[in-house]
Amino acid sequence: MEGNLAQVAEWIINSKRTIVFSGAGLSTESGIPDFRSPGGVWDKYDPEDFYFQNFIASEASREKYWQMATEMWEPIKKAQPNPAHLAIAELERLDKLDCVITQNIDGLHFKAGNSEEKILQLHGTAIFVSCLSCQKRYDRDEIQERIKKGQKAPRCDGCGGLLKPATISFGQSMPEKETQEAYHRSSICDLFIVIGSSLVVQPAASMPLVAKKNGAKLVIINRDPTPYDDMADLVIHGQAGSTMASIVEYVKQKLGIR
Ligand code: NAD
Known about the structure:
This protein has helices spanning 2-14, 41-44, 52-57, 59-78, 83-93, 108-112, 140-148, 176-188, 207-213, 240-255; strands at residues 18-22, 99-102, 119-121, 124-131, 137-139, 163-167, 191-195, 217-221, 234-236. It is an alpha/beta fold. The protein has two domains: 1-31 and 81-123 and 174-258, TPP-binding domain (Rossmann fold); 33-78 and 125-167, SIR2/SIRT2 'Small Domain'. The strands form two sheets. A six-stranded parallel sheet has the order 3-2-1-7-8-9, with helices on both faces. The relative contact order is 0.19. It binds nicotinamide-adenine-dinucleotide. The site of nicotinamide-adenine-dinucleotide (NAD) has 28 residues, from loops.
């Protein structure tokens, strides 16, 4: 195990473009449940209730969606970055990070200290709410206040359009700019490190494949096996926090930084 951690550190040091690709497993140690682990979101809710077309189609679906979203907002709002987020932010400070491509919507990479230009949020963010018609943005807390006061499926002040957290639901288009940029970066990186993702949600999960096909080394750090383990150069089945903290400690040691 120690040898594997030192090996990843060596690859990071020798890399010109390292990408970190993060999933919900990165944030479970911050108290935010992932989707697929036991006790995760899919043990509690029906994935169909998150489909975008249902949200558009009926007021009853929107009310149900906002009920679930309200319940999920509390842990996200309270969450603090864990050692894995902090280690990734440290990679940026060491000038050893090309970018983070994240499927997460919790904003914890920012809270950990990564800068905005380094983060590509493929699935949007729960920190804001936006109007699906005029795109007006609202602070999430402002809308949660309205829900507390009794609104069940809030609407835009400006145009009366449907308000939805600025996250990408199943069936909703991915953000074009971020997605294109993520594919481009994946195709030119030389080291691609997956942390805490089951690698089953498409199209995000195709990015490690793009990187590998273009000659990058692929490292997968995840508690459970993923469909891409066989093609990875190194797989570490462990906890994101302690694994990333050790890897970055090795990087600093090798660079002679204390
Ligand atoms: P997922 O739930 O499909 O998979 C999470 C993976 O992380 C699992 O394979 C699990 O083994 C692993 N894992 C859990 N805790 C871990 C830990 N402490 N250390 C290492 N590995 C750990 O998540 P996904 O692949 O990101 O895809 C699901 C979708 O979930 C994404 O689209 C994302 O937008 C959304 N999501 C995000 C959050 C968040 O922002 N924190 C939370 C729930 C869901």
